[in-house]
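User: I'm writing a short report section on ligand binding and want a predicted complex to refer to. Could you take this sequence and zinc ion and write out the structure as tokens? A short remark afterwards would be nice.
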Amino acid sequence: MTKSFILLGLVLALSNCTTTQSISLNTPQVTHVDLPDGVTIRIENNISENLVASVLRQDLPRLLEQTGHWGALSEDVIIRIHGSSSGFRDHVKQDHPGHLDGWATYRSIDVQSPRAAGVERWRDRLRQVVVHELTHVRFFQTVRLHVDWRQTDIPFWFVEGMAVYTAQTEQSRTDWRGLRRASNGLDLRLLLDPTPIVVQQQSRLAYTTAGVAFGEILALKGTKGIREIMGGLSNGETFTEVFRRVYDRSIGDILRSWGAQIGQDF
Ligand SMILES: [Zn+2]
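Assistant: Sure. The structure tokens for the complex follow:
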């Protein structure tokens, strides 16, 4: 990740005659928020998104608190608010199959401005997206995961479920009963660990399923259990190993128990 940042910096330095490469070059709206633990959050935005950036600065303490369970930030984070989808797309993984509102790496969050996109109640959407992505950043930093998590054995339902669950309100959560109706007979295993095609075609359902799965795990041992999982991952255990150690059952067992709850036997 660090490497790609250095490369990106070079590209930007060499291309200052273009206008599409970087927010920081064409519209240098930059503010810093210093956190008590010595970490700085740098917010960059297009000038058209000054209002969105100022709302984010106001909301940031609350969003940091909402995600605080998942570990302290140990390194500076940059949050870029993009006024256009093309600017946003320049910063996210091009091979991601689904629709995206935000993108997180170890040290960065990119969001497409919900206000510029004409989203109603854009402040709520901004909060949701930033909480989702901030959850990812805290997770990546806590387990010291510099590579794309999809290159590890950490499942979609855990990484995305944590972010979905954290960004949801109590009222917006569903359970296996709700999913039984919504899933319409789709194999639960396919939703829990979706292929790119499934992410593309059943994005909402896959993310909702991940949120339910994460909530189930959280109900077993609370945030303590999740933190133990993260501790194991940061010490080099695989997800499969640490899951079995912390919850005293295999991932296969827990998946089967979830399948039973939506009427699927596997
Ligand atoms: Zn996510």
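A remark for your report: The beta strands are 29-34, 40-45, 77-82, 102-104, 108-112. Confidence is low (pLDDT under 50) at residues 1-21.
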